[in-house]
Amino acid sequence: MQWFNKHRLTITIISMVLFLLFCIGATSGGRDNTTMPEGAIRVVTSPVERVLYSTSQYIRNLYDFIVSLPSLKARNEQLEKELKENQVKLADYDMKVVENNELHEILDFTTDNNDYEYIPSSVISIDPYKGFSVFVIDKGSSDGVKKNMTVVLSEGLVGRVLEVSTGTSKVLSIIDTSSMFNGVSVKSKDYIRVTGDENNRLKGYADFEALINPGDIVVTSGMTGIFRKNIVVGIVKEVLTQEGKLEKLIIIEPSVDLSKVNKVLIIK
Amino acid sequence: MSILKLSLILLIELVLQSTVFQFLNFHGIYPDLVLITLICYSIILGKQYSYKLGVIIGLLFDIMFGNIIGIYALSFLVTAYLISVISSNMFKESLLAPISVFPIGVIINHSVIYLITYLLRINISLIEYITQFNIIYWVVNIITMLIAYPLILKFIKRYILKSHTRS
Question: What's the CA gap between B91 and B43, in Å, rounded?
Fold first, then answer.
């Protein structure tokens, strides 16, 4: 007993370390739902976080706006020029759509149903060590969110639901290094394995024969089963051939600016 | 009771770090308040208390952000305990103690986090992990440490140690 009292601190610490190692082992495979106490903690902290998050983002946006004021005129002129160019393209596109529909009718072609049902939700906090790799949103199992649901924005893919508790859920964004999914290049129809990068960009790996060029758009292929089909992922920035490797390395710029995410949509 | 007060401060800092600091920062770098405060606690309170605070805030961290429960709890536990052992013979009133111990704390904390994620086969490049600790990180954090340490020392002396001696 005396021995125990003498070494109480050491014994407590060792048993705590063992307990935590057990926790790590038990939860490392990922979980569908969180336990009650965890849900309770999140319910308490999430309203505070939501207010702080949106206020600080508002302040940041205001600051960015003030800083960008001098360059706004030049940018406006550039955008007007682009708009004119795009109007010409749009007319061309409309013609193509009509033509395409006619051809579809002739071929009796069935298109994929892209009318998804969405759960709108807002971001309430971000992992302070990893940045936008993991963030928390304000909708949980009570709103019908389930694990592995696809999270998007109008611009494109954001990530997938990692873990659900009653009022909140965690989202693993596509820029996290542990996220991996299958994408496809729209132009060449080549498959690309897409994973996250530490520099908030995406890395992709494709076949050596793949005909992918910078500027190509990458969408989800729907093959891995987690993400729905045909959601825009990003634009190819660089295609690098690695020496001694049988795959091409592709740097993809995500279409969603994750550092400015505020509201997201979850596909039911 | 005092542990509750001290962990509440850590929780407030954690919430600030995950919301406000994500937008109001210096080129993406902001002071790691939770780690700074935990290191201050470890120096001032010693090994009897520090590890408990480490586990509490670590578990909260894991619950709020991590997908694996225990990584941050373990890293903060180890950091808090080792820091309080290292600094046990240091003069607590001087600013030399926190400044000399802070880099060790950062190294211990992030080594443990990296080691666990590596053992769990989560793919993180070591070089990219280390490059986040650049010169701006150290400057921002050490300045924050210099401001925070006297405040925390004052707070603990006035509210925590006093109530201990009274009871």
Answer: 9
In a domain, A20, yes or no: no
CA dihedral A83, A89, A90, A94 (to 10 degrees): 180
Inside any domain, residue A55: yes
Helix, strand, coil percentages for chain B (3-state, nearest 5): 80, 0, 20
Chain A hits for B51, CB-CB cut-off 8 Å, are 13, 16
All residues of chain A having their beta carbon less than 8 Å from the beta carbon of residue B116 are: 24
Establish whether this prediction's ipTM goes over 0.95.
no
User: Where do the structural domains in chain B lie, given as residue ranges?
Assistant: 2-14+33-166
Domain that holds residue A154: 31-268
Closest by Cα among A208, A195, A201, A209 to A238: A201
Residue A69 phi/psi, 5-degree rounding, is -50, -50
**Domain containing A85 — which CATH number?**
2.40.10.350
Query: What are the DSSP calls for A155-197, one per residue?
Result: TEEEEEEEEE-SS-EEEEETTSTT-EEEEEETTT--EEEEEE-
- Residue A144's SS3 state is coil
Q: pLDDT tens digits, chain A, 268 residues: what are they? A: 788 888 888 888 899 999 999 888 888 877 777 777 888 888 888 888 888 888 888 888 888 888 888 888 888 999 999 999 988 888 888 888 888 888 777 766 555 545 678 888 888 888 887 777 888 888 888 888 888 888 888 778 888 888 888 888 888 888 888 788 888 888 888 888 888 877 778 888 888 888 888 888 888 888 776 788 888 888 888 888 877 778 888 889 888 888 778 888 888 8
CA distance A114 to chain B (A): 31
| A14 belongs to a structural domain | no
Contact call for residues A1 and A116 (beta carbons, < 8 A): no
Domain assignment present for A204: yes
Contact B69 A60 (CB under 8 A): no
Residue B65 touches chain A, beta carbons under 8 Å: yes
Distance from A86 to chain B by nearest Cα, in Å? 33
Work out how many domains chain A is built from and give that number.
1
Q: What is the C-alpha to C-alpha distance for residues B100 and B86, in angstroms, rounded to an integer?
A: 10
